[in-house]
Specification:
Order of helices and strands of chain A: HHHEEEEEHEHHHHHEEH
CATH class of the largest domain in chain A: Mainly Beta
CATH topology of the largest domain in chain A: Jelly Rolls
Number of strands of chain A: 8
Oligomer: homodimer
Number of helices of chain A: 10
Shape of chain A: elongated
Amino acid sequence: MKKSDSLPVCDFCFKYNETFRHLTKDEIDILSYVKSCNNYKRGDTVYHEGNRTGGIYCVSEGIIKHYKTGIDGKEQIIRFSKKGDVFGFRSILSEEPACTTTKVIKKASLCYIPSTQFLKFIRTNTNFSMFILKLSCRELGDANQYIMDIAQKNVRERLAEILLLLNDNFGTDKNGVLNISLTREELAGIVGTATESVIRLLSEFKKDGIVKLNRRKIKLIDTKRLKKITDVY
Amino acid sequence: MKKSDSLPVCDFCFKYNETFRHLTKDEIDILSYVKSCNNYKRGDTVYHEGNRTGGIYCVSEGIIKHYKTGIDGKEQIIRFSKKGDVFGFRSILSEEPACTTTKVIKKASLCYIPSTQFLKFIRTNTNFSMFILKLSCRELGDANQYIMDIAQKNVRERLAEILLLLNDNFGTDKNGVLNISLTREELAGIVGTATESVIRLLSEFKKDGIVKLNRRKIKLIDTKRLKKITDVY
DNA sequence: CGGGCAGTTGACCCCGCTCAAGCGCGGTGG
DNA sequence: CCACCGCGCTTGAGCGGGGTCAACTGCCCG
């Protein structure tokens, strides 16, 4: 039985994923031989910060959070990965241990590619390495932006920004509800604040008719007003 | 007259700079043909955020700050570059405008390499591109760490951390004074706080015998105590 | 029906920002 | 050489954003 029969979803990576479009036909063949796919449920840990990982991952389905553990075990969420994203290459390429813990937010299937093979591709395929280079430089730009926001904006402004960002990244279902379900604590972990502050501000937004709330379902009503809140300067 | 006679300092890049050690002899020859060197004094701007840059820079002497301009024009300093560092490749490789403004802190000589040539090297020399890849991934790790610090540590803890970081990066002169001279405002721009807060905390550190202050000269007396202050968790 | 956890709300208070005034050093011009 | 000016630095007062703690609610699940 071929692997692709048991886990057909994994074909996604090679056919449609933007990253692997830069590989040649032969390289794709090698890849499908060495890769391994796995399903994960919400809460599963892919890897822990401080560990060596030995490979990179590609998301064929689901949502992943990357966070650092801080004071009192408080999670600081750095970013998310979703369908089509690759992650885990940072520590491989910088030759450092993983700098974030990676957990599943929405049940996922991930493909794993051993670093030896990944590095071979990087070394031999210029288009592929250029793409990864571009990716890491984009992420660096995002991180720089985030440093400024967190240093200079207040919690209200940052929360509004995060809501818009989640909207851009994950979109909404047919009812206009954000396609990502986060606990208030996780939201606080992105914004960089206390859970209670997120709750208070969300219900303030609700009162002002900017969002609708139903447990973890968040619907953005007035994105223009959210934009006005973040962009105060 | 050869270029190296008028600006001999520029030989540094090719002979000793870690980045360019990955180029071949032939490539170095090309490089010395296309590069151009310039001297800058404190306060000079190398490029502005939002602009296209057209090339990368290598520091043969001096110190450079990279910052984003935020609310009310408040500078958020993201990082520094010093002798031997290259910068400006992020925006070239991500194909975005510069995300930071780059200014001279301590008078500098910089070599400029047009992006066309830089990209050729990246495309044709695997060792070189691997090195740049590693560099950007390291920077990304640093940025992630900084996000967590700024989100979770208080100003006192962050200031202590920055002092130690400046000590690691720039060292001290024979009197133990930090080899980088920053205004209180610039320090505040790194820590992500108000100038007055930096001043108050510095004089508190002084009172406790942790640092000695003489205008912009900062001498770290008790680095262990600084470490203890940052590492509270 | 009860236990547990996420979510919510209120009270309190402290960190750190802002505003304002004063200080000191270095540069400039008379 | 001194007087003046201005910028960077310092200090104090005041206050508000947001963190912490505690109590309560509501939903889910066994």
